[in-house]
Amino acid sequence: MILKERRHYPRYTVPSRTIAITPRNLGQLIDISVDGCSIKYIGEEIHLDTEEYIDILMKIAKGNGFYMEKLPINVVWEDEPDYSAFSTITIKKVGMAFKTLTARQKRQLQRFIDIYGAPEN
Predict the structure, then answer these.
(1) What is the spatial distance between Cα 31 and Cα 44, in angstroms, rounded to a whole number?
(2) What separation in angstroms does the CA of 104 have from each of 37, 107, 108, 111, 115?
(3) Which helix (DSSP H) or strand (DSSP E) does residue 15 occupy?
(4) Of 48-52, 70-74, 101-105, where does mean pLDDT reach its minimum?
(5) Would you state the pLDDT for residue 20?
(6) pLDDT digit string, tens, across residues 104-120
(7) Which CATH superfamily is domain 12-115 in?
(8) Strand pairing of 18-21 and 53-61?
(9) How far apart are CA 60 and CA 35, in angstroms?
(10) pTM of the entire structure?
(11) Which residues are within 8 A (CB) of 78 and not within 5 positions of it... i.e. 6 or more apart?
(12) Whole-number mean pLDDT of the chain?
């Protein structure tokens, strides 16, 4: 089966130290675009489908960082967890679409992508 690509904007990978924070979860931001992002997190019983927003945080250097808060989201998909025979840790990946962003959030997001985003291959 061939899946139709639904993305309208290019995705960019982000530095591995970029953190995604929701009111109930903490994860690592994997990639981002102007209309969504994906994260990975540890756990089995985390209910991202009930999350309403995400904060994005990246520590750049001593005393400096990048922070975007309360980007409204909808969870679009969630991968089956990765299980390892060598670990009891379960890692999940989730794709999110941004809902309506404020003008300030749009500027912050574009600035983050321009400075830290690397085009996906």
Answers:
(1) 21
(2) 18, 5, 6, 11, 17
(3) none
(4) 48-52
(5) 94
(6) 999 999 999 999 998 87
(7) predicted glycosyltransferase like domains (2.40.10.220)
(8) antiparallel
(9) 24
(10) 0.81
(11) 48, 49, 92, 93, 94, 95
(12) 83
What's the full length of the chain, in residues?
Answer: 121
DSSP E strands, 1-121: 12-13, 18-21, 26-33, 36-42, 53-61, 64-78, 82-84, 87-98, 118-119
Q: For residue 66, is it left (φ>0), alpha (ψ between -120 and 50) or beta?
A: beta
pLDDT for position 70? 95
Name the residue among 57, 65, 74, 52 with its Cα closest to residue 21: 57
